[in-house]
């Protein structure tokens, strides 16, 4: 190839790159640095990728752009490919990302143009562009047919598919040539036929596959594929399919189309998985799977529509005269039939399962689960799992019936038996699905199933745990009978199921568990040597306490349920393992849940044992939470009492003050003077301090007794002389008191009473209550103070209108305040507070 022309390069057509070549050692060799361009080379009509050395303008690379998908773009600056002519790996490393993107777009554009030109038979003709018909299939034409099949492009493959389907005798003639080559032991001819058949299959035509997979030709096609040139010895697929593969009919199938589809499906699967497993690509495998899926749908549809066939199937399954071998084949067929129903549409699947339920399939499964053959029992469980996957309510509706109750018991029994390979988990999942409360429908059925399960089967499951943890759980008992040792995996499944029941319906399960002492029995697992069983028991208690129910907590405290857990925690010591984390998580749950009963129970009972673990943050926080609960217990009671008294005071104040402000001002003035003189000698005014036993107040009496001075040793009485307060200030106080009724009444009244005390002291007057609390004055001073109070009342009544009313009200307030309680007690009675206002 000649050197390329050197056109005038510019920044768009020339890009700076490094040329790399992959050597035999798998390392990249640097061939030089230059500028790349896409252009026509000399004496050629092909567009090529050219790289010119930047120093001496020598040609570093000339690569004709190929229409095949051989180019790869890596890391935004590298374009690599495998040169089909030289069978070498080449790569261009660009200095700039923009240059790499530009050249990559140019390559993709050229590939599209070249592909369109090849379809239109323009200057780039393909190998078989003039293919009009296939050559006659003969031994001498096998090389030409092989070349056409294996070397045709995409457009030629479509044309080749049309010609093969158009020639109805092509495969028949090819099979005849195969027989001749096989008889003559013509190995070369057999190898060519193998490649021809393989190439035709790789065309991935559904019509061709349907034709070659027919009953008439499938065995011969498989025979052609026995002679793989890549395998030194011929395979014997036909011999295996004829002699070792046996087709069993549990019930005779009379429809020939069903039989044909069954055989075809098996052979296609054998061809896909065995014969051509290493040569088929994903597209061919997907096409073959679609053929198998379609065949399965046809088989199931034809069989389910045959009512005679279904009735005969269930009649044989229920018949006591059916032999065990025949019943085994019937069960296998029923399982396969239900499994193949996945090929149907959803609506057809639901209709099929309902028909099977009406035919009594669940009753048949009950009988299957009671067969001693464990393999058949697992097959029955698989059938139930298929029903639950499709529509769980079908099985729920059967279980809640009277005749369906034994099925749930059989599932529980199957979960407790040892089937090997952890097959008890399958029974566990079936039971969990029946009890699952997160399903979209069937709530009433689930509730009934939960009731049945809790009543009849929970004791049975718990007894298994108890028996496995007793001292005679293994070996020979006293009676000489050998006990069956329960596998630890089964015990773990039982714990998981119990936890699941609590999470699904805590109200029902907690009552059942408390009545049957389930928690104490499950905690017997702490005696087991398997640590994961001990963790499962702790996790069960953790789940039970998550209910946050007082009955559960009281039960735990009363029966000392947590003792085995604490003992295990102490025995575990400072080992940081799953058991340690599970128990600490349980304590954290109790602490964060503010379970005061459990907090006190654990600390009061087990703190001597837990004290050695105070270095752990969880134990420290647990003790702090316990101390906080103790501190908040007493203040809480006091706060409740004070709050109750305040509420009583407020209710009394509301009614008394409403009546007070509804009275006429003039009537208040006159009544104030008369009532003051009448009530002054009464003993109860002094808050019951100097009252005689015979005298009693019409109210309930004061809430605080001040007779004993030792009760309030730190109390300091107010000074006798206080700054004088004017009448205007007293009026402002009364107005403020009227405006603040919507606020805290108790606080406002206390402030008003204190101001009234200061006012009366400045005028040299002291009430009986003040004399009792502060100091005991002689009778002479009392009379003089009363006279002063009377003169003050007369002066205040000389005003007119609003002023007279305001002064009278203020004066009355001062009078009442002086006579009632000048120093407000923290526990004053409601009536005292009202009079003080």
UniProtKB/TrEMBL annotation:
This is Serine/threonine-protein phosphatase 4 regulatory subunit 3-like central domain-containing protein. Residues 145-628 form the Serine/threonine-protein phosphatase 4 regulatory subunit 3-like central domain. Keywords: Nucleus. GO terms for cellular component: nucleoplasm; protein phosphatase 4 complex. Residues 655-670, 705-714 have a biased composition (Acidic residues). It is found in: Nucleus. Residues 690-700 have a biased composition (Low complexity). Residues 15-114 form the PP4R3 EVH1-like domain. PANTHER family: ATP SYNTHASE GAMMA-RELATED, SERINE_THREONINE-PROTEIN PHOSPHATASE 4 REGULATORY SUBUNIT 3. GO terms for molecular function: protein phosphatase activator activity. Its main location: nucleus. SUPFAM superfamilies: ARM repeat (SSF48371), PH domain-like (SSF50729). It comes from the Eukaryota. Residues 655-738, 759-837 are annotated as: Disordered. Residues 715-724, 774-785, 808-818 have a biased composition (Basic and acidic residues). It holds the Pfam family PP4R3.
